[in-house]
Amino acid sequence: MTPDNGGKAAPVASKSSSADAKGPNRVLTGSRSTGMPHLGNYFGAYQPAIALQDRYELFLFLADFHALNEGFTPAENRANSLDLAASFLGCGLDPAKSLLYAQSAVPEVNELAWILSCQVPYGVMARAHAFKDAQAKSIDLNMGVFNYPILMAADILLFDAKLVPVGQDQKQHVEMTRDMAQRFNARFGDHIVVPEPLISSDVAVVPGIDGEKMSKSKANTVPLFADDKTWKKQIMAIVTDTKGLDDPKDPDTCTVVKLYRLMATEAEVREMSDKYRAGGYGYGHAKLALLEKVKERFTPMRDRYLDLMKRPDDLRDIVLAGSKRARDIARAKLEKIHAAIGLIGRPF
Prior knowledge:
Structural class: mainly alpha
Order of helices and strands: EHEHEHHHHEHEHHHHH
Largest sheet: 3 strands, parallel
Strand content: 5-15%
């Protein structure tokens, strides 16, 4: 849910999803910011998440507690949170339809995380994919890394989320969340909604300019809100084979066409593919066509994003207004949980 899914095209509701796409179900998802987003972030996370606001009751949070594991400075943490909020709003998130809030503005999340941690066996946590991956990569294993699935479970369970959009690689975290909810309910009564994963049957990969999955760590991105000059520089740097202008080319293996397909109509993709196969159409022509699609699609979003970033106080007010609403919901839920488990110390 919260990791940067880089170039993965994110899950969207489909007939193959594990829950019915109809009805007033609450969907919850969160995201960590690592700076300027790129096309992979948009097609992999932002676009599909925002699309959910027209079909569900969407809760979307800035996962700034989760981001503490990234080792950013305080200034970077603040800037990244505002950047992420501006990115979602610039891309079309409507705070009148959806609940946008900061994880750190809802301390009840941490209270529930502690309550859940008292129900989860150590062995279960040690088998979590995120923890095992961190071990394999020799990453500094602080307790935040180890407890990540519990905090994620608290994010979900505190708000009675029924559906959680995840890719196949994140499905285990929802399964762990379901297990924690079931353990709690078995011991204290049915007080927590057991969520379902919302998984797309078709998960694509958004390629970077080198043909590999688009990722900041690989420095192969096309920034989402860059100026025209930067867009052109990155797109013209897309790696292709050495076929000349007159040579027939394979559109199915070309990174330029793969990116173009994300923004163009079927007819436009078919036309470009035909030109590739016929010859007399160079990679430079295709890159310029891709550049025009990027400008057409993302210039309005870039303008909204830049406007919001010029007004950080207004942007923060939007997030805090959503956070207040989120905390009101969280406090009411946690009050019921406290009563269920027999705590008397919280002055609600």
